[in-house]
Amino acid sequence: MSDLAFHIREFAPTCAEGPEMEQRQALLKARDYASHLRSRVNSQRAFDHAVAAHEMAGGYVFAEVSVARLEIAVAYCRNLVQAAFLADHLDDEGMEA
What we know:
By secondary structure, the chain is an all-alpha fold. Helices cover 74% and strands 0% of the residues.
């Protein structure tokens, strides 16, 4: 069992192996990555996207929801992280809207 799976089992003991565990692990990674990203970006817009990704991942990683909902949450978080990178790049160029 991986460290992430062990952590998930502590807070979601009924989590099934396979797709459910994979999505929960992806959410933990997204949460941690978004947290790290918050301290790395320069623009407020990028920071806001990173905060939203962190909150979404944290809200779903241990929630009792379907695998389909977990998949949506993972996609949402990944897209927010991508948006944070893009916003930071655009705002660094000095063309803030």
